Amino acid sequence: MSHPTLPAFPSLPPLLSQSLAVLRDSLPAPAPLLRTIDQHIPIPLKQLLAEAPLNRLFAQALADGEFEMFEGRRIRLEINGGQPGVTFGLWAGRLRILDGPGEATIRGSLSAFKTLAERRLDPDQLFFHRRLVIEGDTELGLALKNLLDSLEWRIRLPQIFLHRI
């Protein structure tokens, strides 16, 4: 029986990189844990934790009116299996976290959303290969995908928690 080779974390010292790889490989996939946590967090706390960073991340685009077409609309981003997920919309020029379903739902694995957030792959490729899918109002979902693709933004997410999804 051959053992898988451990992926390297190139910017870290070798011993720390290998330790993190072993830890990551022995931890369970995070989606079930995230689902359990998500079900127990009230919407006001989600709003408190997520709205300010989202509005800072897209501050220039919001100020430039890039999100205007989403005013009063609801879009849901959802991990495969229905939970966890987040519904957001634009009200009074601010991105807001909302409770309930969206008019459009973009669904995929946690790793697909991570790839999208880190901009490591063209969003069209993620949709073409069905790693991300749009359900409901597909025109609204495609408009969001095209907007995110046109903006300059990037999120770096921890490798250790998202590799095994």
From TrEMBL:
Pfam families: SCP2. The keyword Acetylation does not apply. It comes from the Bacteria. GO terms for biological process: ubiquinone biosynthetic process. Belongs to the UbiT family. Required for O(2)-independent ubiquinone (coenzyme Q) biosynthesis. Likely functions as an accessory factor. This is Ubiquinone biosynthesis accessory factor UbiT. It comes from Marinobacter mobilis.
